[in-house]
Amino acid sequence: MLALSFAVPNVVAQVTILHSFGDGTVPNDGWQPTDGLTQTPDGNFYGVTLSAPIGNPASNIFRITPSGTLSVIQNVGHPDSKYAPFFYDNELINTYTGRYKKQPGVLFSLTGYPNGPWRLHTWHLFSGEPSDASGEIGHLILGADKNLYGVSADGGSVNQGTIYKVDPKSHQVTIVYSFPSSNPAVGPRTGLLLAADGNFYGGGFGLYPNPGEVYKMTPNGNVTTFYQFTGSRYPSSRLIQGSDGSFYGAAGGLSRGGSLVYKLSTGGVLKVLHQFIPGKKQFGIDTAGVVQGPNGNLYGLTNTDGTAGKGTVYEVSTDGSIFVVLHNFGDGSVPNDGAYPDGTLTVGADGNLYGVTTRGGSAGNGIVFKISP
After folding, report:
1. Cis peptide before 117 (omega within 30 of 0)
2. pLDDT surpassing 90 at residue 320
3. Is 283 exposed, middle or buried (0-12, 13-18, 19+ CB in 10 A)?
4. How sure is the predictor about 110, in pLDDT bands with cuts at 50, 70 and 90?
5. What CA–CA distances, in Å, run from 63 to 150, 201, 354?
6. For residues 93 and 101, is the Cβ–Cβ distance under 8 A?
7. How many C-beta atoms lie closer than 10 Å to residue 264's C-beta?
């Protein structure tokens, strides 16, 4: 029987608030951090927020040390840079996320690592269908060919989304695959994973009434369905490949069935490790992707459940035999500990877990936290 999210053991883990946005310690430090953090070789973390004052149509990229010293390194002048930046070749690379035809999205980088001065460089203006990407365009990864790869929710030949690659030297953007108006894999939902077998794996919504799916793309751009979910399920996070070679991820649902964490073998066989069952007042529980900790177990975030209904940090074993809640946000055990975490945890070089919440903290604008399981 699957464990229920409201009836699982809790384990006391040390939670440290590294920064509360809007508390006055760093002027104009923004609010509502999203998508977690990126750690760079110098040990610091980078993330994004909406900028201050609230309502200002821009985003901040910030740096924070493991001990909690935060500085805003760039205001990017756009309200929809909501993904943690990708670090490559001493540059922080990110996107302004386009949501409308008048804002199809921008690919940019910040140079000046590690200590500045920071300079903003525009790499590419996405133009949308039929020959370019648009829409949600974040979560870049590095391919084996040293190009960067990403997905877009819109754009492409029939405006159903794309997989694109970027030459980090020339900044040339090439559409590798345009999603069709019929299966397989309509509507990319998640970023990509470059697996040990040399193929890319990602998540798609599927064409209604079909459920979502995990698709596989070969290096030459051939896309096929790798695993199709049942019912109204769809992948809600990027996959990771564990130390055992299996894939791990999270899936959501368009019903009261809640979300789940799953294991997917390299042969395409799925095992549910834990299912989150929403309470009476909750329509569903969103869980972001998981990371694998030094002990081999998986760690993740939920954004609406827990004893206070403000999200949790959880730990689950790779065989599903262990599931524990490490922290319940907003339950009073740690004052001003944040609410409604977003994105995926980052395993720091020190073995601790780092993440963000979009709300809560001493000023109510979200926090950066560290948890030591």
Report:
1. yes
2. yes
3. exposed
4. very high
5. 23, 30, 13
6. no
7. 20
Q: The pTM is what?
A: 0.93
- Given this model, what pLDDT does residue 317 score? 97
Strands 223-228 and 213-217: antiparallel
Q: Residue 185 pLDDT more than 70? A: no
The answer on pLDDT for 3 being more than 50 is no
> Taking all residues of the chain, what is their mean pLDDT, rounded to a whole number?
88
Per-domain boundaries in the chain: 1-45+251-373
Which residues, 6+ apart, have CB-to-CB distance to 189 below 8 Å?
Answer: 153, 202, 203, 204, 205, 212, 234, 235, 236
- State how far the Cα of 156 lies from the Cα of 149, in Å rounded to an integer: 15
pLDDT band at 4 (very low <50, low <70, confident <90, very high): very low
Cα 321 to Cα 209: distance, rounded to the nearest angstrom: 33
Burial class (CB in 10 A: 0-12, 13-18, 19+), 222: exposed
Length of the chain: 373
DSSP characters over 112-161 = -TTT---EEEEEEE---TTTSEESS----EE-TTS-EEEEESEESTTSS-
CB proximity list for 347: less than 8 A, separation 6 or greater: 291, 292, 293, 294, 299, 353
